[in-house]
Specification:
With 675 residues, the chain is an alpha+beta fold. Among the domains are: 66-206, PAS domain (Beta-Lactamase, 2-Layer Sandwich), CATH 3.30.450; 411-661, Alpha-Beta Plaits (2-Layer Sandwich). Helices cover 45% and strands 24% of the residues. It has 17 helices and 19 strands. The strands form three sheets. Strands 12, 13, 14, 15, 16, 17, 18 and 19 form an eight-stranded mixed sheet that branches. Strand 10 (269-280) and strand 11 (285-295) form a beta hairpin. It is elongated and about 130 Å long.
Amino acid sequence: MAAQRPRVRFSLLWKITLPFMLLAMLLGLGAALLVNDLLSQEETDRFLRQLIDSGQQATDAVVRSEIDLLELERLIANTEGVAEAVTVGNAEDLRARVLPLAVNAGIDVVAVVDNEGTSIVTVRRRPDAPPGDYDTLRGESYYGEWPFVQRVLNGVTDEVVGDKHAGMEALEFEGGSVHVFFVAGPLLALDQTLVGSVLVGKYTDRLSVEVDNEAGANVSIYDRSGTALSTTHEPASDESIDVSFETLQSIQDSDEGRSPVRAITVAGSEYWEVLTPLVVRQGTENLGVLGVSLLRVTVQGGTENSLPVVLRFGVLALALIVLIGLLLSNSITRRLGDLVRASAEVASGDLDTHVNERGTDEIGVLSVSFNRMVEGLREGSIYRDLLGRTVTPEVREQLRTSFSDGALILKGQSSEATILFADFRGYTSMAEISEPAEVMKTLNEYFSGVVPIIALHGGVVNKFDGDAVMAFFGILPKYLPAKVSALQATHAGLEMLEHIREVNKERTERMKPAFEMGIGISTGTVIAGGLGSEDRVHYTVIGDTVNTAQRIQQITRNLGGTALVISDSTYRKLGPVRHQFRFGRKGLAKLKGKQQEVLVHEVLGRSSTLVGRQAVDESIQHYTGSLPRLAEILSGETTKDARKAPQASEDELEFLEDRLEGEQPGSGPLPVLDE
């Protein structure tokens, strides 16, 4: 009858939680006030820093745009034939020279004027026109009225930027006026006489969009009176973002690096906008105001002067928490420490560990459960050790996965695989005249070579049946094409025959009878999975292919001596790699339990290998310390010099895995098979 599970009478949760609940609530209230206040201030400071950084990036973007316009102005002014065309007033020749430059640069407006300020030719792209679609105008006289153009034509220069000037003016279109940011420079003839001026302009709407993209913020451009000329905002028709006179005064009065910040409302959302002078010509000329704004996400402010109060409160609460925590934790951690030490002892292999079962809380219940767990470990250690020695790692991993899924019995799967049966002959007569321990030792001498050979060729030993062994290929640890499993099994069978010949040489030298082995191989559809009940399961493969392989092995007795015979299905799966093997007799065989005769092929030898001889020898040498040792233990014939089986290192395991995967072939090439 199962032992009754101990009950928790006074939960450890309440032992720890109740004293701390009130303190935690008080501390949380004070911390909330402090954090709220600090977050509010930190958020404001961070937002202002981000806004100022965006403003600086916007100013830099305007400077870069001015430089681009100046470069285009110089290119046009220095283009061959431009000055001559202006001198003679040849508008068509001038258009042919200027228009390609404007199109390539994607500029909005280019105007070439004479000494009177009248345009010889103007090429400009309408604000809504696609790139490359320019209108050509001539004879406009309003350029001469613009102050910056007059300064160019009057030859005004300074020591900072020379004879280049800039300004913002409006151009008239059918839909209304559009403001343009211009740079202008003199146009000189070959004799360095002034013949006119070149103006290059960019619409302020386009300029604000470009600056917006570089600064990562909304950008607005205002004239000197504070009127918005362009903006990347989308204000409602009744909203105005113009800069007031008082704000303009604060911009002029502000110190360098401390630009004023104002709050504006656009489409119902609050933005904070930093305002800086829109200066050109290396800061010598002010064209208006540049505004850079970000959406303001506010954090509720905290109570004023709350920091000292919260700090004093927090110190007191922490002192009380530490004092109470020490008292409570001391009574808890003593028992937990006992469990930790006992767990470490169990982890090191000591299953005689026991902990005191004090109390009725969770730790007391845990102590009882721990002791029961250790008892179960002691009872099952021998069985687990035996399972780990007699089941291959592939099968053990498959069983572990199926157990964890809770569906081991239902995991039977149909697949195409290759089955190998090998029979050790002479066992019956030997068992009649030999001691049981000697028979066990002899069988393990035989199996110690067979098992690693099967494993190195990708097979899995499924079961031992007296003097016979059954193995399958192409299922574990992963499914493989039947062409591959047939190749692996055939090579493994030949390797087993070579091994038995080596064993026979040693036995002959010791004056003992030689062994004979018969091997049968068949390829076909099998069902692989757990077979048995929920509490006792055996992983195996079943199907007609398994029966065929076993019956083929039985007919090898008729061939005399040691022999390897494969079914016609395996022979066909070998396909283009049959040249690796030497085949002997073939014919139809009447198999026990089958109504129709089966075509079989005798395999005599091979011209290449899948696994090198050295790998086989090393694997057999490692394996011989396992099953023979187990046989001695079971038979009670332990010798004085018996040692534990050597544990494979990570390098050795990696070496064997590489051999299995074919990365390091043996004496012959590893064929490439299409799946």
